[in-house]
Amino acid sequence: MCEFKVLRNKDHDQLAEDVVIVNYTENNELILKDIMGMGTKLDSALILSVNTMNQTLIVQEDPLIHQFLTLITKKAGGTLNSEDITAMQASLEQLKAKCS
């Protein structure tokens, strides 16, 4: 059985170990379950890489990820509305202002 160490991309801190199940919830939260069935929840994360050779899974965490995943999930499900897009645009504008 392949059991993964889950590392944060930014600093390679280990977030979980002995992970055998990885999936997203209906609320777009990333769940990492170990061999005992215990889960670790990441509220706003994407899987960047899975390496079975060294048994590592790298994730990227950022507050924008949850909002983006929700946006594309709603789009795929046909429930996207203009308020969802406006909220995402506002988050991006705040980020843009911080970069100026």
Could you give a short description of this structure?
With 100 residues, this protein is an alpha+beta fold. It is built from two helices and six strands; from the N terminus they run ββββββαα.
Describe the fold and architecture.
- With 100 residues, the protein is an alpha+beta fold.
- It folds into 2 domains: 4-61, no CATH class; 64-99.
- It is built from 2 helices and 6 strands.
- The chain has helices at residues 63-77, 82-99, and strands at 4-8, 14-24, 30-34, 39-42, 45-51, 56-61.
- A 6-stranded mixed sheet has the order 4-3-2-1-6-5.
- Helix 1 (63-77) packs antiparallel against helix 2.
- The model has no long low-confidence stretch (mean pLDDT 95).
Features:
alpha+beta; 100 residues; 33% helix; globular
Instruction: Assign the structural class, choosing from mainly alpha, mainly beta, alpha/beta, alpha+beta, or little secondary structure.
Output: alpha+beta
- Strand fraction equals 35-45%
Alpha carbon gyration radius: 16 Å
Q: What order do the strands of the largest sheet run in, or round the barrel if closed?
A: 4-3-2-1-6-5
- Alpha-carbon distance between the two ends: 48 Å
Global mean pLDDT: 95
Task: Compute the number of helices.
Answer: 2
> How many distinct beta strands?
6
- Major β-sheet annotation: 6 strands, mixed
Task: Give the ordered list of helices and strands.
Answer: EEEEEEHH
- Dominant shape: globular
Task: Return the domain count.
Answer: 2
Low-confidence stretches: none
**Which percent range fits the helix content?**
25-40%
